[in-house]
Amino acid sequence: MNEDIRIHSWPCSYYLDTIKQWVSGRLSLTPVAIKFTADKTGELLVNFHLSSISEIKKESSNLIFSSLTILEKSTKHWFSSLQPSRNVVFNILEHFWREQLLSSKGAGAEAAALQSTKGKELTGLLTGSQKRLEDTAKVLHYQGEQFDNIMRGLNKIEGDMDVADRLLTELESPSWWPFSSKLWKAPLETKPKETATVSDSKNQEGIIIRIPVIITHRTDSNVKPGKLTLFASGLEISDCNSQVIHRFESKDVDDIRVHTPYEISVRQRFIGKPDTSYRLLSAKMPEAIPILEMQFSKKIQFLEDALGFVGARKSPQVDLGTSIWQAATGLLGGVVQPSSPVGGREGMDNDQVQLQKQEKISQEEAKELKQILKKLKGLALETEAELERQDEALDSITTSVDRATLNIDKQNRRIKKLT
């Protein structure tokens, strides 16, 4: 991810201690830093890393009202006249600061752990691929249930149309026809009972991903921290106390706009009343966007500031998958035949020998990699089978809809003759 991406910027004033004056300019937030640029001179007066912040507070005094202070190491920075409001800026800065601290701790532990072998690095890559494939399988499974529900509904429609056809036949038959009353009474008595309603998938489905977000509803002056939860059937926005603010089913979402890699908006349109729209900002949003893109491929739109993120994410993704499998094949081969030389020339120096040793993986790592690859293969086969089943179901649905349309037209003509 590009660390120079500007997530947000706000007009404000900064107290420059060297001249003891307030300077107007813009406070900017990037994924890893906070910057302040003066309006008149364009000079960058403030530029420090989020991880160097010790404290962010809302303060005021007799001379300074509605100010925001950021304690960076031993220096205290004062910002005032924040637009649209101090609370908005505080919530966003605090969110990214806390997430940066958490990721820094995780990254430090991960760096210490990954300083070992290529095998652990490869295990991490394969584990990530497995998680993405599992998320895909969850979404496909839910889509398969939806197709099954559509098929049940179409079967019920066909049954109702058979009954309507018999009733029309009864009405069309002459009054002296002796079997007219039997044409429809028997089928009505033997009509199969309607199948049980669809099980509550909301209670059964699992959570794909849940991330902390800053929520904006319609106006920028009202923001609050909360959570975004992605299910296979839709998405849910809740507050910090896990109280649901709004749930969008997949069919309810009309469009999702990706403003930046860290900010999206979700909207449901209505006729005659205001749209339901939420704007969500999160440091973890890059993890959720690929899942949203998979679920709402026809409804998601990447705006200009997010197009670079799409290109940077999609192109290496193919290379990443290829490199994973190539690396797995090569490394596992090195375990099976550890005596095979990496290079053909003699007189290899100590550095090259050390590099060769580092590129080999242990038997335990190879065993773990094989297990992950086996799971990946099973998930891939299940996903492929589910896609084929959904293709067949879609063909059946199309055929049933065409047949129902013809029957409806035919019955309409018969009704017109009767009237």
What would you say this structure looks like, in words?
By secondary structure, this protein is α+β, with helices and mostly antiparallel strands. Helices cover 49% and strands 24% of the residues. It has helices at 86-113, 118-172, 182-189, 201-204, 285-295, 304-336, 350-359, 363-418, and strands spanning 8-16, 21-29, 33-38, 44-49, 53-59, 67-72, 75-80, 207-217, 223-231, 234-239, 244-249, 255-260, 263-268, 276-281, 300-302. An eight-stranded mixed beta sheet has the order 11-10-9-8-14-13-12-15. Strands 4-3-2-1-7-6-5 form a seven-stranded antiparallel beta sheet, covered by helices on one side. Helix 2 (118-172) packs across helix 6.
In short:
Belongs to the SVAP1 family. Residues 355-393 form a coiled coil. It is built from eight helices and 15 strands.
